[in-house]
Amino acid sequence: MIKAYEESGNISEVARVFRTTRKTVRKVVRQWEERGEAGLKPLSRRPKRSPRRTSAAVEALIIADRKKTGFGRDRVARILHERGVEVKPSNVRYVLKRYKLTAKYKRSRYRSRNRFYDFESLYPLSHFQVDLKEVYDAATLSEETLRWARKLNIPPYQWTAIDVKTRLRFLSYSSEKTFTNGLLFMLTLIYFLRSFGVEHEITLQTDNGEEFGGKSVEKLEYLNR
Hints:
With 225 residues, the protein is an alpha+beta fold. Helix content is 43%, strand content 11%.
């Protein structure tokens, strides 16, 4: 564009050739005359003032907590909120990105990793996977082990609740595989957590087993209530 202008000296003709406006041609020519080749490089679009930007003091707290704990945006925001510092997870994300403190996701070498939960937003002891396992498993235990288990009267059923966030697990045992025992196990888990001051909502995820309602619409509605 500069070369065409130097040859013709006509701004309107240069604008027509390059299919642009005369204002754009004047701007390019002015920048060329003022700063030479450096004036043709893209200029920063960063605003001179950012009144809504996170303060330097809060940024320092975010960076310190990130380096100390390694937590993501939601947990860092939650920790600061508990200290009385009001900051949104989105602001934490911008600060971590600005200072290049974002976590790198490593792909599994052997298989693709499917993430079924948003671990950043999950609160500890809020989402449990509940399941039932038969202790007397002939496929994994020897005959001698099974014989001793029956002799010692070890309950044949193990109820497990695993916290998705922390992987903490709670176990109970029963002699029968019934809906009543499944309900009692889940209620015991809830009451146990409540007794320690856990007040947030608790989600219990189960499979379609008969001990968790199965295909019974009434039992499933009862459990959801």
